[in-house]
Specification:
By secondary structure, the chain is an all-alpha fold. It has helices at about 1-20, 20-50, 70-80, 80-90, 95-105, 110-120, 125-135, 140-145, 155-160, 170-175, 180-195, 200-205, 215-225, 225-235, 245-255, 260-265, 275-285, 290-295, 305-315, 325-330, 335-350; strands at about 55-60, 65. A two-stranded antiparallel sheet has the order 1-2.
């Protein structure tokens, strides 16, 4: 009891000293205020840790931080879209509206995630993912980004094989009209990877529009598609306008033999010398032995460029029966004709 009385007496003396000294009184008030503020902050911090789902804190007026305290929240916020689809496929047979919205919002990049999920799951959910590709027009959206580093034609080709949609083939061919070389080259790789016969009619039409499409790009795709493209071009050859026939014939010359040559041989009699020259060159490129007689007959053509193409073609075919015609062409007054004929005869000598 004496100790308590002594403590009260000391505090009273201290308070009297502070009260009578103005400077000491102000300093004491400041110290007490600081201690009270520190205590208040400690209480608030302790309350926040006990309740992680309190209102979100806004950082820099733009970034919202949401505390995460469960495995479910971690999956919801940080799990990649492809993995979310995989998780959901174990629970449902169709894509939920929430994930479909995420797919739509993240297009065109979400196509890669959808494709990855399709390759890892089976059953109804997989089929619904395929349907989502078509319903959301994901192929068209992705195609519009081709040529950029993050969007590769092979991803689009793989997605098309999962969800074939003939209505987008024209969109793919139209990419060849781009003024950007990167887009053109991506379109070439895409169409070659697809190797889709249904695109042939669009490509044949594109070949006849050199003012819109780069013929070399279209030709590259057609040549890569091989025999089906060659057969179609041969079938269309009689209907193709005269000014476009030389281009089509040059494409046919780059293709592997095996397609019907009748329409190409018929072009040796065309009124246009460019068409006759292109036909002779194409027959030589495919080593068309069946056209030997027609080529020899064309050796007397009035146009020197046609005779030159004939001389080269006969050398490529390499039939000894053409030697007589080549000797005649070697004496031609047009120096290019003579050079090609003599070069062709040297091939015969080399082969022997």
């Amino acid at each position: 009891m004496c100790i308590l009385y002594k403590l009260i007496e000391d505090i009273s003396s201290l308070w009297y000293g502070i009260h009578t000294d103005d400077k000491l009184f102000v300093l004491s008030v400041v110290v007490v205020g600081i201690l009270a503020l520190i205590l208040l902050l400690m209480v608030m911090f302790s309350s926040t840790r006990k309740n992680p789902r309190m209102a979100s804190t806004v950082i820099d007026n733009s970034t919202t931080f949401v505390p995460v305290d469960s495995e479910k929240d971690t999956e919801e916020i940080f799990l990649p879209l492809a993995d979310k689809l995989l998780v959901e496929s174990t629970q449902y047979e169709v894509v939920s509206p929430g994930l479909r919205k995420k797919i739509r919002d993240q297009m065109p990049g979400s196509l890669s995630d959808v494709l990855l999920a399709i390759n890892k799951i089976h059953g109804p959910y997989r089929n619904d993912l395929r349907n989502t590709i078509g319903e959301e027009r994901m192929l068209t959206a992705y195609a519009q980004s081709l040529g950029q580093a993050d969007y590769q034609p092979y991803t689009l080709a793989a997605a098309w094989h999962e969800c074939p949609d003939p209505t987008v083939l024209l969109d793919f061919v139209e990419l060849l009209t781009s003024r950007e070389e990167a887009v053109q080259m991506a379109a070439v790789r895409l169409l070659i990877a697809l190797n889709e016969p249904q695109s042939l009619t669009y490509l044949a039409s594109a070949l006849l529009q050199p003012h819109r499409y780069v013929p070399a790009r279209v030709a590259e795709v057609l040549v890569a598609m091989g025999e089906p493209a060659a057969w179609l071009l041969c079938y269309l050859l009689p209907e193709i306008p005269g000014e476009s026939r030389p281009l089509v014939l040059s494409v046919l010359g780059q293709m592997q033999p095996g397609y019907p040559l009748e329409q190409v041989i018929a072009c040796l009699y065309d009124a246009n010398e460019q068409t006759r020259r292109a036909a002779a060159a194409a027959l030589g490129d495919v080593k068309a032995v069946s056209a030997l007689n027609e080529l020899c007959a064309l050796a007397t053509d009035t146009d020197w460029s046609v005779r030159s193409a004939v001389a080269k073609a006969l050398g490529q075919i390499g039939e000894p029966a053409a030697l007589h015609t080549l000797k005649m062409l070697a004496e031609d007054t047009a120096w290019m004709v003579s050079i090609n004929a003599r070069d062709a005869m040297r091939r015969f000598t080399h082969d022997e």
